[in-house]
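Sequence and structure are kept together here, with a separate record for every protein. An example record follows, reproduced without changes.
>
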Amino acid sequence: MKLSKKVSIGSTEQYTPHYLGGIEYTGTGSTRKLEAIYFADGRVYNTNVTATSSTVALR
């Protein structure tokens, strides 16, 4: 089971997605944002994940 994956360009970390069951968080360092929740009929994803706001906008 994959728990996380570090995405880097050269030696610079860009972001790290973390996985917990059907929930995916993305972040750098200790900052995490909800990216998506996966379930049998599809997924619900946060349209505000790259913005500086911490508000979750689900679609």
Remarks:
- Residues 3 and 19 are 5 Å apart (CA to CA).
- Residues 1-59 form one domain.
